[in-house]
Amino acid sequence: MSASAGTIVAVGTARTPYPEAARRLLRETLFGAARDELQQRAWSEITMSDVATAAGVSRQTLYKEFGSRDEFGQAFVIHEGERFLDGVDEAVKEHLDDPRAAVGAALQAFLRSAGEDPLVRVLLSDDGTGGMLPLVTTQGMPVVQWATARLTATIADGWPQAPDPEVKLLAESLVRLAISYITAPSDSPEKTAAQAGELLGPFIDRALGS
Known about the structure:
The protein starts with 7 loop residues before the first strand and ends with a helix. Helix content is 71%, strand content 4%. The chain has helices at 18-38, 48-55, 59-66, 69-93, 99-116, 118-124, 133-136, 141-158, 164-183, 189-208, and strands at 8-11, 14-17. It folds into two domains: 15-67, Homeodomain-like (Arc Repressor Mutant, subunit A), CATH 1.10.10; 68-210, Tetracycline Repressor, domain 2. A hairpin with a 2-residue loop joins strand 1 and strand 2.
């Protein structure tokens, strides 16, 4: 029997309505197809039809879910970024007694993971005119907003006494620094994190109450 719209299905330990579970599966399938395509050629050479065909769905289904190629590209970048920010969360939680160390460890973990990821290198290996790079830089506001919101929540959970405006300012500054260093690295993740910690140290002390 096919699942009806009201059916509840298990996803991990949670129980999720069928339409939501089906949408998650569709998006994961589409992102997986895009990832496979990017292993073979640049984003500028990949069409929505290519992604839809690789995913085994119609182009109309892909457009209905994401609206445009740029929207799909931004959603894909955010999806891939989730695993890097999972590492940031863990680094912060391991240093809750030392805000400066937490920020340094989080930035170092993010830069190291992103720098070692083969897909990130593919995403950034273009001249900025037709690849994925503009989705992170010149057209990257949705990515910046998502990452800032995610990091703001992480910092607020670790230091609930910190003022909200300063937590958001710190989170956005770190996100923009991380994007800058990823797209144009000048030093190792360790040295970059140390330099950022030195630069932001006084603000971190004041904002997070060290």
